[in-house]
Every structure is written in C-alpha cells, then in structure tokens.
UniProtKB/TrEMBL annotation:
It comes from Streptomyces polygonati. This is ABC transporter ATP-binding protein. Residues 6-232 form the ABC transporter domain. Residues 234-281 are annotated as: Disordered. Belongs to the ABC transporter superfamily. The keyword Transferase does not apply. GO terms for molecular function: ATP binding.
Length: 281
C-alpha cells in the first residue's frame, strides 16, 4: 500500500467510565475502499466517531500527514472528511435539494453537483421530494451524495447497507464502487459479499481492539480466519456474485461472542449526531 491517507494508532475511548476502545490501529489506503469489520459491538462505529472527534479519545489520528486527534470535529471535517453516519442523518422534513444544500461548504471550488447527480441521477429527479418520504436506499444516496459534494479527501460510510433489501444493497454497492473511484472510502460493513466486492484492505476489530489487518480477499478466502474473526459460519467463494445476491444468502458478520465491553447505556447519546452528520457532509 502507498502511504496511508489515515493512520490511526492506539486509539482509546472511555465513555462514562467504560473502556470502549482499548487500542485500535487502522490504516486507510489512499485509494479505493478500506473495510472496517468486526462482530456486533466490536467497536466499529465508536472508532469512526472517535476519528471524527465525536467522542473523547486518546491516541494518534493522522490524516493526510497531519495529527488531528486534538482537532474539533468541524475543523477536521474542513480538512476534507465526509461522513455518512449509520442512521444516515437525513433531515426528514427537508427536501432532497435542501438536504444537499445544507452540506455545502464554501471555498471548496463550489459544490460538486455534477458528480453527485452523475452518480445518483435519482437525487436530481427527486430534488423537490421530502427526504422523509424516500426509501432507505434513496436516503442512503442522499447521505453518500452529501459526502461527495465538497471535494472531500476521505469518505467514511458506516453500514450503508444496513436494513436495505438485497436489490437495494446491490444498488448501493454500485454507487459506493463508483464513489470510491473519486475518493478513498472507509467502509464499516457487515455484509461480507459487499466487502469482498469492494474492499482492497480490511481491518478487523474485536472487543475494542484491532484483531487483524490485511488484504480483504485474503481474509475472506480463509474460512478459519473468517470464522474466528467475523463469526462467519460458512464460506461461499462465489466472489463473482453480485453483492445483493450473496447478501440475500445472509453472508454477514455475526453477533458478539460475549464481549467484555459493557452494553451501551440506554441513556447514552444517539449513535449519530445529526448536526455532525450535516457538518460532515
Ligand atoms: N455512548 C455509549 N455509552 C456506553 N457504551 C457505549 C456507547 N457507545 C458504544 N458503546 C458500547 O461500546 C461497544 C462498541 O459499540 P459500537 O457501536 O462501536 O460497536 P459496533 O462494532 O459498531 O457494533 P454494530 O456492528 O452492532 O453496530 C458496545 O458494547 C456498545 O454497547
């Protein structure tokens, strides 16, 4: 791999006295898709939120050669990181066009609407539609489209296919594939068929630590390692199958195997901070 775009070392997060991350190391390649994998509760979303400064963190986060671990989220975002959060962070009461307009940042050479509309023609047709009336896949397009508006140098997408029907997963996969040709993507994903199709490298977390890093194809071709690290019961080497088809067969990372990390507190903050989703667009 060339010099990584994002280099995370010994990232630790403590929330309410609970150690959520204990030392995550993560390199994001300067091109294509890097996948962040792990069972439920392994710490993937917390890692992404820590990189973005949305939770208190220690360690080192170097982005494009600059140490950013002490930077506020808005400053970091202006350095060129787009974020599509797990809950999509779309404003239901605003139109598609208004959602996109909110994400515009001045001084980035103007918003890249031609790119966004080329990748997602539907967002152009549906410009006047309230985002709350869009399907899950269409809302995901708004979330990803927003990250591509401002010439960002890195896009972080947190489980963009979660809860989507297999056909829509295939659509989102195509979109991510094309987006990754324009900008490097850090993809949090449990759909391993999608990972096999899109990702060059992967990093696997377990219990708040990095458990593995290397070429995604290598890990997914190793049934024993896939089972141990991802809890995949069986391995289907049908890499040529469209992501949606294999996704329909249920090739997903399994749940946690009794993590020592305590469960999220019911009164904890919401997973995605809406304002940050907006700011990070
Ligand atoms: N604000 C919080 N307060 C307390 N515990 C939290 C908080 N956020 C996350 N956790 C806990 O930290 C652990 C890691 O959560 P995280 O959401 O990062 O995992 P994940 O790998 O993204 O999981 P999933 O795949 O299920 O989305 C979990 O045990 C979770 O309950």
């Amino acid at each position: 791999m060339h010099e990584p775009l994002l280099v995370v070392r010994n990232l630790a997060v403590v929330i309410g006295g609970r150690h959520i991350l204990h030392g995550v190391d993560l390199d994001v390649a300067p091109g294509g898709v890097t996948a962040l994998l792990g069972r439920n509760g392994a710490g993937k979303t917390t890692t992404v939120r820590a990189v973005l400064g949305l939770v208190p963190r220690t360690g080192s986060v170097r982005f494009a050669g600059e140490e950013t671990v002490r930077l506020a989220t808005h400053t970091l975002v202006r350095r060129g990181i787009g974020y599509a959060p797990e809950d999509r962070g779309v404003f239901a009461g605003l139109t598609v066009a208004e959602n996109l307009r909110l994400a515009e940042r001045p001084g980035a050479g103007g918003p890249a609407y031609p790119l966004v509309h080329e990748l997602f023609p539907e967002l152009k047709f549906r410009a006047g539609q309230l985002a709350g009336t869009l399907s899950g896949g269409q809302q995901q397009m708004v979330a990803i489209g927003r990250t591509l508006l401002n010439g960002n140098r890195l896009v972080i997408a947190d489980e963009p296919t979660k809860g989507l029907a297999p056909k829509v997963v295939t659509e989102v996969a195509r979109v991510l594939e094309r987006a990754a040709q324009a900008v490097p993507v850090l993809l949090v994903e449990q759909n391993l068929a999608l990972v096999r199709r899109l990702a060059g490298h992967c990093v696997v977390l377990a219990d708040g630590r990095t458990a593995h890093a290397g070429p995604a194809a290598e890990l997914l071709a190793d049934p024993e390692a896939s089972r141990r690290l991802l809890g995949v019961g069986r391995h289907r080497p049908d890499s040529a199958a469209p992501a949606g088809e294999t996704a329909a067969a249920g090739e997903h990372t399994s749940g946690s195997r009794g993590s020592t990390v305590p469960a999220r507190s019911p009164d904890g903050p919401p997973r995605a901070v809406r304002a940050a989703g907006e700011a990070a667009g």
